[in-house]
Each structure stands twice: as structure tokens, then as C-alpha cells.
Design a protein that fits this description.
The protein is an all-alpha fold and 155 residues long. The chain is built from 6 helices and no strands. The chain has helices at 3-44, 48-77, 81-90, 94-108, 113-129, 134-144.
């Protein structure tokens, strides 16, 4: 009777343990990165500035998430525009969506190889774990490169 529930509990437990291990590894990685950055910056800058730069580097993701939260709130307020903006890519199959992302990554790989790598890794993770989030990534990429691609506006 509870065999299915037991399996679900085991899967949830394994997922939580996996997430906890990833967070722990990321924290250890951040510590080593900050030590390396402090050593590199200490050779080039006077004493207070390496700590300031590293601290601002750690605060940058918080600022980005705060800006993203503001943008999400603004998007929620404009509820009529959000579904219409994403509707064009929801109907596409996974190959078409990944094809668009591949073209976008190919366009920026020469200018920003690390950004291209991050976008490709994010797209791969979304395609495997959260396929319904691919249209959101496509919309973000399309909005980010709208100025650079006049064909994206239809003109």
C-alpha cells in the first residue's frame, strides 16, 4: 500500500542530499576562489582594496537576484504582456528550442566565450531537468540580443 510512497520519500531524500552536497561543494569552491583572488589582487593593489573587490564580487549575485526580483514583479504587474511574449516559443519542440539556443551561443562565442559556455550549460541543464523553462531562457536570450540582431524585430 505504501510502497510507492516509500520510493517517493527515498527519491526526495536523495534529491535533498544531492542538493546539500552541491551547496557544500560550491561553498568550498567559493572559499578557494576567494583565497586565490585575494592572493592575486594583493600583489597588484594596496591592502584594503583586494578585500573590497572580493566583497563586492560576493555581493554581485545578491544584487542580480534583487534586480531579477524587481523585473519579475514588474512582469507580474503587466500580466497581459507576459503570456503573449512567451507564447511564440512554447509551441516549439525541443529541437527547435535548442537550435535557437545553439545559434545564440554561436553568435556570442567569439565575443564572450565564458558567457557562451554558461548559457550552453544552463540550456543543457534546463533541457534535461526543466524542459518547460526553455522558452523562458529563449525569451531572455532574445531580449538580451535584440539590439544586436535587427532580424529579430522582423526588420
Amino acid at each position: 500500500m505504501f510502497g510507492g510512497l516509500s520510493a517517493q520519500v527515498r527519491e526526495a531524500r536523495a534529491a535533498i542530499i544531492g542538493i546539500a552536497l552541491m551547496v557544500a561543494c560550491a561553498a568550498i569552491g567559493f572559499v578557494w576562489l576567494s583565497i586565490a583572488a585575494a592572493q592575486a589582487l594583493a600583489a597588484a593593489l594596496p591592502p584594503p582594496w583586494p578585500a573590497v573587490i572580493i566583497g563586492l564580487g560576493f555581493l554581485a549575485p545578491i544584487a542580480v537576484s534583487a534586480i531579477a526580483a524587481r523585473l519579475r514583479q514588474a512582469r507580474r504587474d503587466d500580466s497581459a504582456a507576459a503570456p503573449a511574449a512567451q507564447q511564440g516559443f512554447v509551441g516549439l519542440n525541443a529541437q527547435d528550442q535548442m537550435g535557437f539556443i545553439t545559434r545564440a551561443v554561436g553568435d556570442i562565442v567569439d565575443r564572450a566565450p565564458l558567457a557562451a559556455l554558461a548559457i550552453a550549460a544552463l540550456a543543457g541543464m534546463l533541457a534535461v531537468r526543466f524542459p518547460m523553462a526553455l522558452p523562458l531562457l529563449i525569451q531572455v536570450l532574445q531580449d538580451a540580443f535584440k539590439d544586436k540582431d535587427p532580424a529579430a524585430d522582423g526588420g
